[in-house]
C-alpha cells in the first residue's frame, strides 16, 4: 500500500466522529479534498500525503512523532508547518503566527497550506450561497476578520513567489470577500 492510501486510512481513523464546522459532513471530506487538489496540481506523493494528514496533529490526538514514524520526516515536517501553534493562544495570535510563518516556509508547506485554504474558502463560499450569511456565526471570528486572515495568508504565500494553486486561491478569496 502506498503512502497516499496509508494516509487516507490513517486520517480517516484519526478524524473519526469529527464533522465540518456547523454541518453533519464528516470532517475527513476536507483532508481528502486537500489531497485531491494537490494531486490535480501535480504535487509529489509526499505533498499529497501531508495534505491528507495536515490536520491530524492539530485536531486529533495524533503526534508529529507518529506521523514521522509512519510517513517519514519530510511528511512530518510539512504537517508541522501546516499546524497552528499552541491552542491556548488567542485566535489573532494563532492566525498571525500562520501569516508570519508562511512568508518563509518551504514551498511544500506553502502548497499544502494553500490547498487547505482553497478548500476552506470553497466550502465557506458554497455554504454562504446555500445557507446565507448566518454561516459566519460558525466561526470564532466573523466575515471581516476571516477576510483579513485569508487576504494576509495570500500575501504570505506569494512572498517568495507565486504558483498556479495560489492563483486559484486569489480568485476564490476575491469572489467571497468582495
UniProtKB/TrEMBL annotation:
Q: Where is the HD/PDEase domain?
A: 23-130
Q: Which InterPro entries match?
A: HD/PDEase_dom (IPR003607), MESH1 (IPR052194)
User: Which is one GO molecular function term here?
Assistant: guanosine-3',5'-bis(diphosphate) 3'-diphosphatase activity
Q: Which PANTHER family match?
A: GUANOSINE-3',5'-BIS(DIPHOSPHATE) 3'-PYROPHOSPHOHYDROLASE MESH1
Protein name as catalogued: HD domain-containing protein
